[in-house]
Amino acid sequence: MNKVKNYIENVDKVRLKGDLIHYMRVKKPTQKLWAICRQILLIGISFIILYPIMFMISNAFKPVEQYYDPSVIWIPKSLTLDNFHVVLMIIDFGEVLKNTFFISLLPALIQTCICMYVAYGLARFQFRGRKLIIALVILTIIVPQQTISTSLYASFRHMDLFGILGWLSKVTGGVVKVPNLIGTAWVTILPSLLAVGFKGGLYIFIYLQFFAGLPKELQEAASIDGCGPLNTFFRIIVPTTKNITLTVVLLSIVWNWNDYYTPSMFIRTKDTISTAMAGFKTQLENLHNLGVGAENIQTANTQIQAACLLSFIPLVIMYVILQKYFTEGIENSGLTGI
Amino acid sequence: MAVETIVKKKRGRSSLIRKQGRAGYLFVFPWIIGFLFFFLKPFIQSFWFTFNDVTMQADGLSPKFIGLENYRYLFLENTTYLPMLVDAIQAMLTQVVIITMLSLFIATLLNQKFRGRTFYRAVFFLPIILTSGVVYTMMSSVVGNTGLSSTENAYLFQSAGLRDILLQGGLSVSIVSSITGVVDSIFSLVAQSGVQILLFLSGLQKIPADSYEAAQIEGASRWDIFWKITIPRISPIIFLNIVYTIIDSFTSYGSSTGGNQMMLAIQSMGFGKTMKFGLSAAMAWVYFITIVIILGFAYLLIGRRVSKIES
């Protein structure tokens, strides 16, 4: 009793929060110093991260003449949408967005679902070859895309399904043709339907960790109530994955959206946002050579910033909306599952 | 009678587990199909390509067997491949060390309770969204060199002043240049640490608070607590982050001015002007084997001392 009394007497403040009592000990001066240091560090690094974005926003709305004006640092003297007009002249955003949807977004969403499905099987069922499959999944994460992309290109060029379609084509005298899938969205949709799309192994791995951390009782309770494995999965397990699925969806949309390699390799005829951005600078130069737009190629930086801004505004908006789940939901997401 | 029951029970249990286990195939079969067709077949085929001179004809690729010629060319004749490889490895080593330490530090900061924590977390995860191949290279060329705009910005993320101070302080030139090299690339290092911070933060939050309280009651200093409690608990994540950073560093795209040139080189060899698929495949395979060897080292040195993540 005495000890408790001593302890209570030594606290500085007592705060009541509902039925929880928070005791705040006297803050030592070193703790205050640390808090200040911490703020400084965080502000410093945040500045490094936010600087490009601020630069982009500031410059995208800045008229071209003010780019080299030394008196204009962050806030332009006058706002303009001219840069955006130039960008829209060069990039047909409607077409690009439509392409990006089919080539990048749709496979991302499909892949999230299928990876969840596959990872559940790997995590919660014991069957022969399970460890081997997990090792192979890790292999798909390690191998760089270039190693397989040449042959993948050839495979898509003559989508032969192990020779079946070729044989059918010969047999039916050309009625059934061996399709050429290069330049279509199938290049990304097919692999993601089978969970081997871009970074698919990584998502399987994330879900694997998560499902391994779920209590077994969940499955057992479901099977006692008469659910088969599929039913258990769709009705019971899937609802528990809300937080982590949001994280994975966010990650997969972002990575697929920004993926430059796959579209530039397999789909050259249509532009997605990433390839459109890559070609933007050269097209801007071409435009200048034709006499349109700003005279000096150096001053085209404002247009470039406008283009960059347009290219990932959707992502930032999505991030801002979802980040609450992202940042504070990490605790319950079981992302690491230890 | 009793023996019969025992035998019956045993048989019943194992076949039920096996039957339940087989349901796993139901979930995994899409991946198996995808793996066989979209990974294994190209994987083996590209390995076969490395021993051929492959050209693209009207109805497909036509390989011409040339044995070890591609490899011989890469290692003995070509002057740019091996230096590029060494470059990539060097860059990877600095990146892994710095990013792992930096992200652990930041995650520890973000794990503490203070005002504005959510805001800072949102800011620090932003690089995950922003570092794409194309926009990132455009941004970093802007950030590192702002052309003719106000002169103070030109030195913003560069270390011109720092270099002079350190040199005058008496440090040798090589140490100074490695320190300034790190400072110069601080933007790209911070930008690449997004996922690592996320993973560390997730792991740090799993450490139960009572471990810390118990240690504090026992009178451990913060330093002790960090090394004896935090680090062992998150050691699997340290390993995971190291592996992830290695892979991320090796598979990242540089631009024509800097960064990891290897990916670009492989791509342009196969799909650029020359269209030599066999050589491109050989480059990719040597690169891949290098990555595997390095990952093997990472596992031997670090992974073994770490508790396993998966069941």
For this entry, give a set of tags.
heterodimer, A: 338 residues, mainly alpha, two-stranded antiparallel ribbon, 16 helices, 2 strands, flat, B: 311 residues, globular
Account of the 3D structure:
The complex is a heterodimer of chains A (338) and B (311). Chain A has a two-stranded antiparallel ribbon with strand order 1-2. Chain A has 16 helices and 2 strands. Chain A has 338 residues and is mainly α. Chain A is 68% helix and 3% strand. Chain A has helices spanning 2-10, 29-60, 82-90, 93-124, 130-142, 145-157, 164-171, 186-193, 200-212, 216-224, 229-240, 242-258, 261-266, 273-289, 301-328, 330-333; strands at 13-17, 20-24. Residues 15-23 of chain A have low confidence and may be disordered. Chain B is mainly α and 311 residues long. Chain B has a two-stranded antiparallel sheet with strand order 1-2. In chain B, α3 (81-111) packs antiparallel against α12 (222-250) and α7 packs antiparallel against α8. The model of chain B is unreliable at 145-156 (pLDDT under 50). The chains are: A mainly alpha (338), B mainly alpha (311). Chains A and B meet through α2, α4, α5, α6 and α8 of A and α1, α4, α5, α9 and α10 of B.
